Amino acid sequence: MTEMAAPYVLETNNLCKNYGGIEALKDASFSMKKGETIAIVGDNGAGKSTFVRNITGVEKSTSGTVKFLGKEVNFENPFEARRSGIETVYQNLALIDFLNVTENMFLGRELTRFNFGLFSWLNKKKMKSETKKLLSKTNVRINNLDQKLVNMSGGQRQCIAIARAAGWGEQLIIMDEPTAALGVKETSAVEEIIKGLKKRQISVLIISHNLRQGELFQ
Ligand SMILES: Nc1ncnc2c1ncn2[C@@H]1O[C@H](COP(=O)(O)OP(=O)(O)O)[C@@H](O)[C@H]1O
Ligand SMILES: [Mg+2]
């Protein structure tokens, strides 16, 4: 028997999330094909971030199902979603201020050269060269990979978050309002990265409250 390719990279059926008495998400049914780029546009408070968090295991949905590559998934946490190939840029940046660029890029994926029980020696050199490669895939230019994020602008930080997702994302990249807090120049840098992903045929789900951003994918 030949194996059929999963028709959809992501599918949700009647996904619901209640916070106490608040119905933040009600019967969200959605599907996207492999290689497709889709924008979900909605007003503030519409439930967009809730939708993302319930797909990627940040929270448990109240009811409904999520399928990834044709299989039902119930991610326990966002790391599990990442390991399966879903990279997410959350609305509240998941970067660590007191770590440097390379350390943020490898957050939760640190390369270890030797592992002596509790002591592990991180392969810093390798991580740095990989970081350079990841950033170059997305045309993000950051001169000093040893600088801590606390010293960087919102735009640079967002570019790092997006480059991280774009660099590691193998199947699906979800971005929740990636440019909401950015200026015009920073926004266009981020949009270039998104266009690059589209060219690479990576499935991208972008969440926005800005209709213009839907046009990125036409
Ligand atoms: N952790 C939470 N606890 C209670 N209510 C929440 C929580 N997160 C979101 N909400 C509510 O759920 C609704 C949808 O929020 P959200 O998903 O953040 O919308 P959007 O991302 O579209 O702006 C809002 O009414 C919001 O106040
Ligand atoms: Mg939101």
What is the strand and helix layout of this fold?
Layout: E1 8-19, E2 22-33, E3 37-41, H1 48-55, E4 63-68, E5 71-73, H2 78-84, E6 86-89, H3 101-105, E7 112-116, E8 119-122, H4 124-137, H5 154-168, E9 172-176, H6 184-199, E10 203-208, H7 211-214
Parallel strand pairs: 3-10, 6-9, 9-10
Antiparallel strand pairs: 1-2, 1-4, 4-5, 7-8
The protein binds adenosine-5'-diphosphate and magnesium ion.
How would you describe this structure in keywords?
binds magnesium ion; 218 residues; four-stranded parallel beta sheet; Rossmann fold; alpha/beta; binds adenosine-5'-diphosphate; 10 strands; four-stranded antiparallel beta sheet
Description:
This protein is an alpha/beta fold and 218 residues long. It has one domain: 3-Layer(aba) Sandwich (Rossmann fold). The chain has 7 helices and 10 strands. The strands form 3 sheets. The protein has a 4-stranded antiparallel beta sheet with strand order 2-1-4-5, covered by helices on one side. It has a 4-stranded parallel beta sheet with strand order 3-10-9-6, sandwiched between helices. The protein has a two-stranded antiparallel ribbon with strand order 7-8. α5 runs parallel beside α6. The longest helix is centred in the C-terminal third of the chain and has 16 residues. Magnesium ion binds next to α1.
Explain briefly what this protein structure is.
The protein has 218 residues and is of the alpha/beta class.
The CATH architecture term is 3-Layer(aba) Sandwich
Strand order of the largest sheet: 2-1-4-5
Listed once per kind, the bound small molecules are: adenosine-5'-diphosphate, magnesium ion
First-last Cα distance: 37 Å
Strand percentage lies at 25-35%
Any idea how many domains? 1
CATH class: Alpha Beta
